[in-house]
Amino acid sequence: MDLKERIATEMEAGRNRSLTLLEPLSEADQVKQHSPIMSPLVWDLAHVGNYEELWLLQEVAGIPTTSPDIDGMYDAFEHPRAERTQLPLLPPSEARVYIANVRGRVFDVLEKVEFEPARPLVADGYVYGMIVQHEHMHDETMLATLNLMDGEGYRPVTTPPPRAKAVVGGEVLVAGGPFVMGTGSESWAYDNEKQAHTVNVAPFWIDVTPVTNAQYIEFVEAGGYDDPRFWDARGWKWRTKNHVEMPQFWERDGAGSWSRTRFGWLEPLPPDEPAQHVCWYEADAFARWAGKRLPTEAEWEKAASWSPAGKKIRYPWGNNAPTEERANLGQRHFGPASIGAYPGGASPWGCHHMIGDVWEWTSSDFLPYPGFTAFPYPEYSEVFFGPKYKVLRGGSWATHQTAVRNTFRNWDFPIRRQIFAGFRCARDA
User: Which of 196, 296, 382, 417 would staple 374 via disulfide (CB 3.0–4.6 Å)?
Assistant: First the structure.
């Protein structure tokens, strides 16, 4: 498959995913704001088309946008999520017509475009990769919104996640020394993943798996939410102000049984799945309670991507693309799988579930790498650098394989819980 065929295939897969997610919904559910921290679903749908039009038609081919009056309406920086229901958004049927028309013109341009090495925006199809990953990221955002729906909820058609194939647990020692962090060779990597640079990491222990629901229940039942000794001061303030007592979507009945709400439906809480819907403050508090800490971003990447022989790999298991035997990605099961379900996906150090299942909080602030250059626009990464955001790694069950790799960096506010995030712990050696 040549590059243009790959681009077309990837773009169609992303669009089919977006439309399939929204297909079961009424028009009312598509235009409703299900949470003030999330956009109406129809905004996300039209936004991916508008973003595509701006970059693949206007920037690549110099073709002016057909509806400049809507460009600002779908600018994520111009209108905060809480305000988007007040905008004259395209209704669902018109949004679908709009994005289909954009896609048709984009494919016309794709037939003629030259991937000129001297033009960084199109070299190696970079801007097309950016668009593909952007739509998949919004699909994951839409899944988070669907998970917040009230009423009858959202009933995904799916297969159950696999059960454990191996008994895994405990922690492993990762040797100290230098390793190469980031990438300089990944053609579709974002600017914040660059440049590749050497980082010297002290030896450390890291958990073989993310923290499970059963392990997290122990923290809750031991009074972890009531003891300020385990909490960052800002986290304790957040916890007490919001009366947080357990992860989002969890419930406990009078008999002590645990359940969770998933896509609006109540179900028993599986003890052997990675805990998810915990914010950074909760993850940090659990780690302190356990006598450990969250891994740094560099520690996480070394454990995932650097072999003891000193070789950098794209995924924990190597350089081959993710498969159903290696990782839980792309909403295949609409939730995490049991710990030990993917023995073929272990890293060279023996860490499991580092790609897929749940995003993993790290202790690190989102900061630029040495030699960072914003590309192709500062609003993707640069404007978010600083201590307000914490880095997450590894992707979740809702992340598409095109939009995740060992070097991929995600970030969010430390109070965010609607995202599909969990964590694993580490400690000094």
Answer: 382
